[in-house]
């Protein structure tokens, strides 16, 4: 007998992740995950796990600085996205950010790029990001 993977699945850990949508001259900052990382080799919107008691805005700014050395100012949130991977579930908190300074460099990532929203489909991103990528591409049309 088949099982409904959403309603009958065993409980998985839920990870709150902030995504920093850092904008500069109409382009969005993307980073590529290191090959040995979970979903290694894919591009992503920089960010990471929220620490206990940390707001998504604070997490987004911290993660971008740690990953690529860029300072940004959070300015608002987009709708939360929940996604279940086989091993865990994520709750993504997209945070709109303004670029403040710092030359991007690959500190904790393989590489980085400034990308026009219309070109996002050229960069393979994690499946959890699909609704956000679609919304950003639609917004740019």
Enter the CATH topology name. Nucleoside Triphosphate Pyrophosphohydrolase
Low-pLDDT runs of 5+ residues are: 1-10
The biggest sheet amounts to:
8 strands, mixed
> For the CA atoms, what is the radius of gyration?
15 Å
Pairing-aware structural class of the strands and helices? alpha+beta
Supply the number of structural domains: 1
Q: Report the oligomer.
A: single chain
Name of the CATH superfamily? Nucleoside Triphosphate Pyrophosphohydrolase
Strand content: 35-45%
Number of helices: 2
Q: Which CATH architecture?
A: Alpha-Beta Complex
> Which H/E pattern describes the elements?
EEEEHEEEEH
Briefly summarize what is shown.
The chain has 141 residues and is α+β, with helices and mostly antiparallel strands. The chain is built from two helices and eight strands, in the order ββββαββββα. Strands 1, 2, 3, 4, 5, 6, 7 and 8 form an eight-stranded mixed β-sheet that branches.
Could you explain how this protein is built, in words?
The protein has 141 residues and is an alpha+beta fold. The protein has a single domain, classed as Nucleoside Triphosphate Pyrophosphohydrolase (Alpha-Beta Complex). It has helices at residues 56-68, 130-140; strands at 14-24, 27-32, 43-44, 47-49, 71-77, 81-84, 89-101, 111-115. Strands 1, 2, 3, 4, 5, 6, 7 and 8 form an eight-stranded mixed sheet that branches. The chain is globular, with a radius of gyration of 15 Å. Residues 1-10 have low confidence and may be disordered.
């Amino acid at each position: 007998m088949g099982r409904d993977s959403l309603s009958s699945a065993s409980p998985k850990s839920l990870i709150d992740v902030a995504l920093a949508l850092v904008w500069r001259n109409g382009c969005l900052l993307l980073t590529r995950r290191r090959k040995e990382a979970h979903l290694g080799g894919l591009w992503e919107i920089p960010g990471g796990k929220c620490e206990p008691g940390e707001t998504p805005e604070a997490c987004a700014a911290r993660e971008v600085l740690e990953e690529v050395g860029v300072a940004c100012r959070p300015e608002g949130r987009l709708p939360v996205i929940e996604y279940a991977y086989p091993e865990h579930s994520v709750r993504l908190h997209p945070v709109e950010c303004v670029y403040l300074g710092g030359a991007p460099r690959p500190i904790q990532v393989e590489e980085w790029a400034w990308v026009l929203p219309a070109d996002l489909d050229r960069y393979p991103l994690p499946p959890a990001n699909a609704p956000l990528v679609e919304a950003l591409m639609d917004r740019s049309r």
